[in-house]
């Protein structure tokens, strides 16, 4: 099988959530699921001081759906929601 490039959007519970700490915890969960592949993150403003964490990572298609990350990531302190916003097959 091929690799998939997945982009997920993680929303914190409030603007007071430590985004750097949240980012580290989310990346740990993703690496535990997908392995040590390429991972990129961005913190994007949403509204009224609230920011979203966008994470793009590479995973093997044999692992199944990236939706399996929803429960472990939403279980983290400070996380309101987890949404897979894009999945693409990697070529090359």
Describe this structure as you would to a colleague:
Strand 2 and strand 3 (50-60) form a beta hairpin. The chain has helices spanning 19-34, 70-74, and strands at residues 3-12, 39-47, 50-60, 79-89. The protein has a single domain, classed as Ribosomal protein S6/Translation elongation factor EF1B (Alpha-Beta Plaits, 2-Layer Sandwich), CATH 3.30.70. The chain is 23% helix and 45% strand. The protein starts with a strand and ends with a strand.
Short overview:
With 92 residues, this protein is α+β, with helices and mostly antiparallel strands.
The level of helicity is 10-25%
Beta-strand fraction estimate: 35-45%
C-alpha geometry? elongated
The main β sheet shows up as: 4 strands, antiparallel
Count of DSSP-assigned helices: 2
Unreliable stretches (pLDDT < 50, length at least 5) are none
- CATH topology group: Alpha-Beta Plaits
CATH classification class: Alpha Beta
Question: Cα distance, first to last residue?
Answer: 12 Å
What's the number of extended β-strand segments? Answer: 4
What structural class is derived from the secondary structure elements?
A: alpha+beta
- The strand line-up of the biggest sheet is 2-3-1-4
State the fourth-level CATH superfamily.
Ribosomal protein S6/Translation elongation factor EF1B
Question: Topology of this protein?
Answer:
Blueprint: E1 3-12, H1 19-34, E2 39-47, E3 50-60, H2 70-74, E4 79-89
Antiparallel strand pairs: 1-3, 1-4, 2-3
Question: What labels describe this entry?
Answer:
4 strands; 92 residues; alpha+beta; 4-stranded antiparallel beta sheet; Alpha-Beta Plaits
